[in-house]
Design goal:
17-stranded mixed sheet; 2 domains; 17 strands; Diaminopimelate Epimerase, Chain A, domain 1
Length: 293
Amino acid sequence: MVRVLHVDAFSTTPRMGNPAGVVLDASGLDDEAMQHVAREVGFNETAFVLPSARGDLRLRYFTPGHEVNLCGHATVASFVALHHHGLLPRPVPCRLMLETLAGMLPIVLEIDPVGQLMVTMTQAPAQFVEFQGNRAKLARSLGVEEADFDPELPVVYGSTGLWTLVVPVRTLAAIRRMIPRNAEFPDVLAEMPTASVHPFCREVIDPQSHLHARHFSSPRSGTTEDPVTGTASGVLGAYYRKFIGSPPSPLVVEQGQEVGRDGRVLVWTDQRGEMCEVRIAGAGCLVGEQIVD
């Protein structure tokens, strides 16, 4: 039996933000067992905490369908759970090194003015690759028209540890009426058929936010929509700097409203020569737990 904690990341209100499963000690689990647990839990990602010979700890991330290199919301959830159970390797505030399949990533843990743990993670350097597919087919796979895309901005693949297709959209109304046909994504995304799709617009609901986004999963993940995404928000921060202009600091990304999971991700970007360094931050809350046989 495996104890899995349910933590909602990028919100301090239960049942908001993005739910993640967290297994605090996965030392006795092999790959098959981790995949079984993630499938049974059913969240977009479940994180498994492991010891690390290279850093303070190691995280592995599984969707219901497969393992992924990195997951922002499950990282935040994991540190919230470790803090709640008194299992962090050092007292807060502190800086830790996290081992992931996307590399060694610095994590900064602080207590914010209202007493919540704030988790800041540095992601892998941003990368972008041109989308050369059919924009009309892409629009149809999202349930909108090609005319709904923002003509001033490019559609590109982006990664800060996990590839997604960044799709700039003209209006909030277009974002809201999207109904993804995830099964069509691999054909539309010929260059990167396993990538997810991340539409966004500059029109927002909350005047304190700067971008509004949704995130549609690759069909191999076994899920349809990821409510509030940390890695993709990091990509958005780098995209903003590269294609729009100097971003606010922090850039506030709102996400999850269409699925009733209102959340916020804070994003900082720093240009260091040709490399764009990305950091995201968020809080979270422990919701409950379940036992998986």
